[in-house]
Automatic annotation (TrEMBL):
This is Aminoglycoside 3'-phosphotransferase. GO terms for molecular function: ATP binding; kanamycin kinase activity; metal ion binding. It holds the Pfam family APH. Mg(2+) binds at residues 194, 208. It comes from the Bacteria. It comes from Sphingomonas ginsenosidimutans. Belongs to the aminoglycoside phosphotransferase family. It is an enzyme of class 2 (transferase). NCBIfam families: APH_3p. Keywords: Antibiotic resistance, ATP-binding, Kinase, Magnesium, Metal-binding, Nucleotide-binding, Transferase. Residues 25-255 form the Aminoglycoside phosphotransferase domain. CDD domains: APH (cd05150). It catalyses: kanamycin A + ATP = kanamycin 3'-phosphate + ADP + H(+).
């Protein structure tokens, strides 16, 4: 992305910054890290059409999160002519997966940090959260994605390899039981790459919150457990113990894991 595609009012704001393309994330947007001597690093996310809509979702949720849990801080946002730009201050520390790449022995520290953050997030008052993200809404969106051919079946987990999108959708729907679901404030994509911390396990902020909203707690639990289970089943068990889930609901776990495959 070059400077000329910025909203005109941002030229002065970003004068003097060096731009570096950041390949992190899977949202489809273009992300740049911006640096300037004597100033904090900034991150600029840009996209058009469906990606722009996702950036809008993220921007309003980041604003809402400020002062509630550690989160990236937005400093500017624009949405015009089918495009969106979100500028945030860089969050200190590293993501969970980046820390693991640096030192795999930090896994227990990472598990504790993620468990502590999720407990804090899920304890936020549901009535204060203006965003709905429940399973019924997500299933409706999944049906639209399947109908439009937007599901990447090549990205399915190993136990779903070879499945087509229609089979995955039918399997997911068969697992859904609305009577089992609860309501808490969820991150929506609570993976090892979406929470930053320092090496002592102090959480410095969450990122990629475009799916945040009121939903079943297993929306978050299932995604992180899938991450941890691939690394070490003992780490998954430690995480569940840390958040107070002695006997996980395997049906809800499977439902949310399969639902996530469709996005």
């Amino acid at each position: 992305m070059t400077r000329h595609v910025l909203p005109a009012s941002w030229d002065a704001r970003l004068a003097g910054y060096e731009w570096y393309r950041d390949g992190a994330g899977e949202s489809g947007g273009v992300i740049h890290r911006l640096t300037r001597a004597g100033a904090p690093s900034l991150y600029l996310k840009h996209g058009t059409d469906a990606v722009a809509a996702a950036i809008v979702d993220e921007a309003v949720r980041l604003r809402w999160l400020q002062g509630r849990v550690p989160a990236a801080r937005p400093v500017a946002f624009a949405d015009e002519d089918g495009a969106a730009w979100l500028l945030t201050i860089g969050v200190a520390g590293r993501t969970g997966d980046a820390w693991l790449d640096h030192d795999s022995a930090l896994l227990p520290v990472i598990v504790a940090a993620f468990a502590g953050f999720l407990t804090q997030l899920h304890a936020l008052p549901v009535d204060d959260c203006p965003f709905e993200a429940g399973a019924a809404l997500r299933l409706a969106a999944a049906r639209r994605r399947v109908g439009a051919g937007e599901v990447d079946v090549e990205d399915f987990a190993d136990d779903h390899l070879g499945w087509d999108a229609e089979r995955m959708l039918a399997h997911t729907e068969a697992l859904y039981d609305p009577d089992l679901h609860q309501r808490v404030v969820t991150h929506g994509d609570f993976s090892l790459g979406n929470l930053l911390m320092d090496e002592r396990g102090h959480v410095t902020g969450c990122i990629d919150v475009g799916l945040l909203g009121v939903a079943d707690p297993y929306q978050d639990i299932a995604i992180l457990c899938a991450n941890l289970g691939e690394l070490d089943p003992a780490a998954e068990r430690a995480f569940l113990d840390a958040i107070g889930v002695a006997s996980p609901d395997r049906q809800r776990m499977a439902f949310h894991r399969c639902l996530d495959e469709l996005f």
